[in-house]
Predict the structure.
Amino acid sequence: MTDVRQPGSQDSDGHYSDADLESDLRWWAAANYLTVAQIYLQDNTLLREPLRPEHIKPRLLGHWGTSPGLSMIYALLNRLIRRTDTDCLYVTGPGHGGPALVAATYLEGTYSEVYPGVSRDAAGIQRLCRQFSTPGGIPSHVSVQTPGSIHEGGELGYALAHAAGAAFDHPNLLVACVIGDGEAETGPLSASWKLPAFLNPERDGAVVPILHVNGAKIAGPTVYGRSSDADVEAFLGGQGWAPVVVSGDDPRQVFPALHRALTDAHTTTADLRREARAGRRSTAKWPAIVLRTPKGWTGPHTVDGVLVEGTHRAHQVPLSGVRTDEAHLRQLEEWMRSYRPDELFDSSGALVPDLVRLAPQGDKRMGSSPYANGGRVRADLPVPPLEKYALPIGKPGTTHHETTRVLGELLRDLYAATTTPDGGGYFRLFCPDETSSNRLGAVFEVTDRCWQLPVTDYDDGLSARGRVMEVLSEHLCEGWLEGYLLSGRHGLFASYEAFAMVSVSMLIQHTKWLQHAVDLPWRAPVASLNVLLTSTCWRNDHNGFSHQGPGMIDAVVPLAPDVVRVWLPPDSNTLLSIADHCLRSTDHVNLIVVDKQPHLQYLTLAEAHAHCAAGASVWEWAGTESSAGAEPDVVLAAAGDVPTQEILAAAQLLREHTPELVTRVVNVVDLMGLLTPTEHPHGFDARTFLDLFTADTHVVFAFHGYSRAVHELLHGRPAPDRFHVRGFSEQGTTTTPFDMVVLNRMSRYHLALAALRRTRREPAGATELADFCLRQLERHGEYVVAHLEDMPEVREWTWS
């Protein structure tokens, strides 16, 4: 039975004839046939002879259950594109439907253009099938290797966020986003339904969510599958959508119903955008479709007397014993022949001409859409000259400045430079309600926060035309940015350091995508994913232990070395230099970790450029080896802003109390440089590493994050056990800045004591300095409790 409910009436231009239906059903049969063939067959892929066990793959991998629905949607979107000449992007949340999307892009011709070896004939179909989920072939998901994809869908929850990111600032794009009812149970997807509060029809494209309710996950029912239509409609309506329900198990009824729903959705979105661009704000809601069809539709109804179609048993491979069970083999052959492949593919194995004509032409094909290969439409980002924002530096370490504020000024001017006359653009900042808190508020001098809901007189910087994306969901910020980048634009995700961990799995998935994309020549480079972590573990002055966690560094360090970069700028000018590099880069994930609070400033812009280009350098002005003319007795190293201040303060204590001790101070800004060149392209070569750290001198290393990260990076370096790393050790609370470093044993006094223990020789004054450091730590403990602030000599310390 088919049930269709939607507002409005059928667009007269969208007439769907019986002949149209017959053509689409045949194309759908071809897509379903190739989907099954990819899962099962390694030979005899067009069934030109009876099916035998040796034609079956030894390992049956892939997912059938969601695929027929995905192929039906693809067929009807093809028809919509041909009729309206719409640019359409297809985002597939049920990534397990990989074989369906591979089949669709093969049938439209894109796949063979991208991979000429998979030709449009019998030999090409055999190669198409043999490569699926096999060694040396392609993955089972809608992966980076699949033309037309910006979303793999292997890790569920991000489809609608990616679709939204792709729609932002692409005013003529229609994004059809299929959401599996299992995926719809995830937290990120639940948050993503709030998109109408942020999608501006005046300058953005349209997103049409298609909630594909086939009722089951891998082992049981879904919440939406067992919910009533009324409840699902009420939920979506409350999120700002106008839902339409299309349901049924008879293709001859469901196809016309879904065609009508897609046609009306296109008409509604076009009207919304046309009204907004004429200066009139429509009260209509964005359309959404709820599509209920059986899981494993058109596949085996029962297997061994057990119901399969419409249940969780259709999720993966509904007939699993076909190599050893003759009944299963015969049932598979009957299933595949039910699609009549001899009527779909000619004697050479090519798709018959009347079905070839159903595909759109050129880049209108969804597999060829430049929006799914965003590097094709990416424009260079006009990063302004940095001299405008650079801080003047006289003597290093003597002035304080909020480190990230200069970056806010740079981002402000990037917004101004990239805003188009229609109010759109190609750069956006994504941040969970923390833009001003993170000292990036200068952007509000040229734009507002994006907000499509009502605005009151008491709001600050909210408007429909605003292009700063603030939403209290790290998942949405990360997902929106990923979709924005993969469809050809530029951006930055800024977050409190501890809570960026909420979205770290998404960042890992994006890294995996880029790792494989660089091996595909047809994938044009996209702008890098830039993540700014501020309000760091050391300086969350308003907050406590819950806000203190540098774990994202540990999460990204093991990832693809050709993709991942970790930057730890010690001051504003190095942050500017790093931001300039990262914003111009492509196909990387750049993690920038720097605090927003006032910090000492050290390097001029020219010095910062040289320092960042090198990745690390000796700060001769901070050590004593140049004046001593000898090799250092101990090396003091730092990576991160707070560690840099503490290591410099320790160096000053050693200089004052043990003047004959020879010290070297090293600052590391590119963390991945600690790896060897064979492990990372930024790895310091052997000569550079020795010039920084010597061959055998002990190194006391103050580090922003967990100390184990540095120890792991140093594997393979000369005598790595001589590195003694102090970092965050899971000690924290709401307390003073200096008490945080004391709690984690990374204070200047702890570092000086460590240096005295590790130096080549015991200099005069060492005992006295050690006693002084211990007394100071004891005094600190008493002072901070009594006065609720740090000791004056710490609070007011500068380099001298």
About this structure: The first helix runs from residue 18 to 40. Residues 625 and 662 are 5 Å apart (CA to CA). DSSP finds 26 helices and 23 strands in the chain.
